[in-house]
Write a structure and sequence with these properties.
The complex is a heterodimer of chains A (270) and B (331). Chain A is mostly helical and 270 residues long. Chain A has one domain: MetI-like fold (Orthogonal Bundle), CATH 1.10.3720.10. Chain A is built from eleven helices and no strands. Chain A has helices spanning 10-33, 52-58, 61-94, 100-112, 115-128, 135-160, 163-171, 176-204, 208-213, 220-228, 235-260. Chain A is globular and about 70 Å long. The model of chain B has no long low-confidence stretch (mean pLDDT 89). Chain B folds into two domains: 3-227, P-loop containing nucleotide triphosphate hydrolases (Rossmann fold); 237-330, Nucleic acid-binding proteins (OB fold (Dihydrolipoamide Acetyltransferase, E2P)). In chain B, the strands form four sheets. A six-stranded mixed beta sheet of chain B has the order 6-7-8-3-9-10, with helices on both faces. In chain B, strands 13-17-14-15-16 form a five-stranded antiparallel beta sheet, with no helix packed on it. Chain B has helices spanning 43-51, 93-97, 99-103, 108-121, 137-149, 167-184, 195-201, 219-224, 229-234, 243-250; strands at residues 3-14, 17-28, 32-36, 58-63, 66-67, 78-81, 155-159, 187-192, 204-209, 212-217, 239-241, 254-258, 264-265, 273-282, 286-293, 296-303, 314-318, 325-330. Chain B has 331 residues and is α+β, with helices and mostly antiparallel strands. Chain B has ten helices and 18 strands. In chain B, helix 6 links the parallel strand 7 and strand 8 (187-192). The chains are: A mainly alpha (270), B alpha+beta (331). Chains A and B meet through helix 7 and helix 8 of A and strand 6, helix 3 and helix 5 of B.
Chain lengths: 270, 331
């Protein structure tokens, strides 16, 4: 609803601006410290500005290791989530079976539960099953909540694709695979991409579950936590933080624009 | 004449619900066949059985002589026009129409040409670039029709094809479908709950009730000689007369049907029956009277111009004995 009645009172405007500033100024602060010349403590105002930390960061192998691991974990858990999430959404929205609602709830649970519970639960389960902690245990941990994001996106779209489209496609001679490729995928594609991007972003900066499921490996967020207690080369953390903000923000923006226009209901037309 | 679709003792049960129950049907090649019945009577399930979306729980289904129970929908030479049209929203009209050819691997230029031809056939030339969302209801239906016909099916199934259209459009479309069916010579099977539609379009009609076929016949047979109270009641607004009434006026203790236009107002005399007018409705071409005859309600339709009595007035009615159709159901 567009309000062209009268503009909001000044007090409200100031309060809203203050709220937004409170949310976003600390982010700017992080960016500023990435350029400071002072490396031991965060001193305000910065005594001088420099670009040297970018070069330092570039040459730090531990940063690269953490970054590669994070990207690898996020990418693989996103792929797992997209496959499982889509299949699950298809089952829940296309068919009726005993316990359908329960399954829907169980799938969503990992994201509703505090991460620390998921983390402890997974850790003790891995211990019990004698699975050594590795990159794969991190991936499994992340996949539990990545599935939810994909599932939620896909199930909403599946509900909007009318069931007779699938029948129409079969009727016109397309087998199951052709129907998936030519009818289902184009109709749920943007929702899948959006879900996948959100999943990637979630996985990329996840700390709690990772802490419980990682062995010696450090993902980027974990590396940053450790780095904060080190007295030297502190701005390196800020440089990495900037990168993380960008890496997470871009897919979320893309997901937003992709799903924004998808509001019309597919196949409901008469 | 070849049989296009044959049902032999076909049942489709959903748990305890007998959607279709031991149905026998023979749909002949090249005919316009209507499946008529109230909602939940099993007519749509029968259509879905032919299309392959449902599998019979029991019985034999053959399409042009070949057993079809285990043939998936995409291998049947049968196409459907869906009630909600089910056009693919992400494809334009041409790609919608050409979909069946595309999945069969027909070359692009060839399927474009075929799609254009089909659109020509349904009187929508030049609409190829539009999206289904930009079309009106009637246009969408034509696209759905073209999309089915482009595959040259042996049987075309239409699920309540005119249900979503307004009256004027519906009448046009009825004529057009009929003409299309004649010129193409394809077997059309259509499902409807509208008896007028079935009577005016079909070569033969099967009347469904509670998963069973009650009667199969030409529109005239169904209309004039219904074999049961249900058919008489559902098809046309026939007067269904109870056995006692028939015994008094026709000498036989059977259920009977009497079409309203067969009822005449007469002078009092031998064979005339006393009645009271309880309602009258002016319908333009005709006038419909509601009469009370010995506690039995009887409808009469009089041609326009004939003077009709006022409500509450006692009158006498008569009908030719031949017009009284005795049904198989006894008293």
């Amino acid at each position: 609803m567009r309000s062209d009645r009268q503009s909001a009172p000044l007090g409200l405007k100031i309060a809203a601006a203050a709220g937004l500033a409170f949310l976003h100024l600390p982010l700017l602060l992080i960016f500023v410290y990435a350029f400071t010349t002072e490396e031991r403590s965060y001193q305000w105002p910065p005594p001088g500005l420099t670009l040297q930390w970018f070069a330092v960061t570039w040459n730090r192998p531990d940063v690269w290791q953490a970054l590669t691991l994070s990207i690898k974990v996020a990418a693989i858990s996103t792929v797992i989530a997209m496959i499982l999430g889509t299949l699950c959404a298809a089952a829940v929205s296309r068919t009726r079976f005993f316990g359908r609602e329960t399954i829907s709830l169980l799938v969503i649970l990992p994201i509703a539960l505090p991460g620390i519970i998921t983390g402890i639960a997974l850790r003790s389960a891995f211990n019990l099953a004698d699975i050594p902690f590795s990159t794969w245990t991190i991936i499994l941990g992340h996949a539990t909540f990545c599935v939810v994001v994909v599932y939620n996106n896909a199930v909403a779209r599946f509900r909007r694709v009318s069931g007779s489209l699938v029948e129409a496609s079969m009727d016109l001679g397309a087998d199951g695979f052709q129907t998936f490729r030519h009818v289902i995928l184009p109709n749920i594609g943007t929702a899948l991409v959006a879900g996948g991007m959100l999943a990637f972003a979630l996985s990329f900066d996840e700390v709690i579950v990772t802490t419980f499921t990682a062995g010696q490996q450090q993902t980027l967020p974990i590396w940053m936590l450790e780095e904060l207690v080190r007295p030297r080369q502190r701005p390196v953390t800020n440089v990495v933080a900037m990168v993380v903000v960008l890496v997470t923000l871009l897919p979320i923006l893309a997901a937003y624009y992709l799903t924004r226009d998808g509001d019309q209901i597919a196949g409901s037309g008469k | 004449m070849t049989t296009a679709v044959a049902f032999e003792k076909i049942s489709r049960h959903f748990g305890t619900v007998k959607a279709v129950d031991a149905v026998d049907l023979d749909i002949r090649e090249g005919e316009f066949f209507a499946m008529l019945g109230p909602s939940g009577s099993g007519k749509t399930t029968c259509l879905r059985l032919i299309a392959g979306f449902e599998r019979p729980t029991a019985g034999r289904l053959s399409i042009f002589g070949e057993r079809a129970e285990d043939v998936p929908p995409y291998r049947r030479n049968v196409n459907t026009v869906f009630q909600d049209y089910a056009l693919f929203p992400h494809l334009n009209v041409t790609d919608n129409v050409a979909y069946g050819l595309m999945v069969k691997g027909v070359a692009k230029a060839e399927r474009r040409r075929a799609a254009d031809e089909a659109l020509e056939l349904v009187k929508l030339p030049g609409y190829g670039a539009r999206r289904p969302g930009q079309l009106s209801g009637g246009q969408r239906q034509r696209v759905a029709l073209a999309r089915a016909l482009v595959n040259r099916p042996k049987v075309l199934l239409l699920d309540e094809p005119l249900g979503a259209l307004d009256l004027k459009l519906r009448e046009n479309m009825q004529e057009e479908l009929k003409a299309l069916q004649k010129s193409l010579g394809i077997t059309f099977v259509f499902v409807t709950h509208d008896q007028g539609e079935a009577l005016s379009m079909a070569d033969r009609i099967a009347v469904f009730d509670h998963g069973k076929v009650m009667q199969v016949g030409t529109p005239e047979e169904i209309y004039k000689t219904p074999n049961s109270r249900f058919v008489a009641d559902f098809v046309g607004s026939s007067n269904v007369l109870p056995p006692d009434f028939v015994l008094r006026h026709a000498g036989e203790k059977r259920w009977a049907s009497l079409r309203p236009e067969a009822v005449r107002l007469v002078e009092q005399g031998p064979g005339s029956i006393a009645a009271t007018v309880i309602s009258s409705a002016y319908l333009g071409g005709t006038t419909r009277l509601g009469l009370d005859v010995e506690g039995q309600r009887i409808n009469a339709v009089l041609p326009a111009g004939e003077p009709f009595p006022a409500e509450g007035k006692p009158v006498h009615i008569g009908f030719a004995r031949d017009d009284l159709h005795l049904m198989d159901e006894g008293g």
